[in-house]
Amino acid sequence: MQLQSQPDNSFDSIIATGLFDGADEAVTQSLAAGTSQQFIKKGTVLFIQGDEAKYVYIIHNGWIKLFNETLDGDEAIVDILTTGDYFGDSAMFGNQCYTFSAEVAEDVTATLIPIQQFRNIIEEHPVIAINMLSNMSRRRKQQDMELEHRTLQNAPQRIGCFMLRLCPEGVTKNILIHLPYDKTLVAARLGMQPETFSRALARLKKEAHIEVQGATVHISDLNELTTYSCSACSSSYPCE
Amino acid sequence: MQLQSQPDNSFDSIIATGLFDGADEAVTQSLAAGTSQQFIKKGTVLFIQGDEAKYVYIIHNGWIKLFNETLDGDEAIVDILTTGDYFGDSAMFGNQCYTFSAEVAEDVTATLIPIQQFRNIIEEHPVIAINMLSNMSRRRKQQDMELEHRTLQNAPQRIGCFMLRLCPEGVTKNILIHLPYDKTLVAARLGMQPETFSRALARLKKEAHIEVQGATVHISDLNELTTYSCSACSSSYPCE
DNA sequence: CGAGGGTTTGAAGTGCATCAAATAGTGTGG
DNA sequence: CCACACTATTTGATGCACTTCAAACCCTCG
Description:
2 copies of one chain form a homodimer. By secondary structure, chain A is an alpha+beta fold.
């Protein structure tokens, strides 16, 4: 692993998750003691499935891919996370081992909290446990949606839905968004092959009237895209 | 709703979930006050998606189907729960509304805890919050697996995998299990059509050498079934 | 017995995966 | 700044798994 330690002067990134809302000074103090903020390069594998859990990671910047590998070399994307997300917490409760592998998909800045320390903080500060519960139940809901999407939406619709979640709220016309990471990874994230992604994107362009230039997407009319993507779904835009 | 209230003398079902492990007398007392245990008939709809959340349900017995409905009438199964499972808790943290619908798939006995009361208990008893976190992270892991299964396993493998999770631990030869609910529901649970289920089951019979009589399944050699089902998966039997 | 739901079987269609190959894009060293 | 190597993306052709529609069968229960 290529890690470059940096002095950690702020907890902006931590606070961003909403995890430590309502926590008192004592908590931030105690956090500052054991944590480190690190810059980690694309391609670095943070840990693999089955490793003993050492840290909870809070992402400040960049992208992290969580995945599982099967016996015959296939890869299942668990999630792809970015700013404000955290992971590794689930290992705190089970057998203390990570249940997935983590790789840096785009250069990352992250805060690492030793897992035992994190656990202590939770046990001593109910507020944070509640915050975590709140976070977790939101994520569970998202996972439910994910499964629903896989079942009910076809490839072009899934891509459209993915784009919708990248759109800023409030605006409905002339939206410009950027795909967050390379298309192969987006494809994997959406549970399809790169070839399928390419073809599905082409269909989406035609049928929902959007324009794509590399990683840049131009959506002239949001309604058209929602109509196209969300019709097969149990919740309409904004789907959360 | 056809509800029949019954006096609630024991908290066996509550304790079964592991939710209240380590909680003191005060908690159980306070629970007994507001809760009721009820018998509810197959087909009853407990609530639908969007309803204001009133209770957390703890299942004592029977089966509950959680699902979402899409605009065009399709149905996506979120989960199918039984003895020891609980649901409705996620609504405590968000907008206080259920994010899915719940229907009784097989006659149920359940304990209903008013949501505000549950929330109070959590806030006052960190132990229970930790228990919930522990439960939630286990369920999240299961959902990860679920998504992986949908992606990597074909229909017969998914059925085999489902059966494996019904097998008692330790035994490897001559296992008898019973499918928990009607085949249409199993199919939906596994994300396939009833017709596909029927055909896939037929293939499974041939290729993994199991016998099926109605809802009864006879597995003469467990290893054969695990080899057949788990090869495409990132974790081998017993897969959690 | 006959009605109705659950289950199976058949035939045809669709969507995605796979394999193969061409093309575009990116970064490297000369 | 160009040529090369290497990777990402696109395009084409084909196959397979699952869906869909239709009809038969089975089972249970009034």
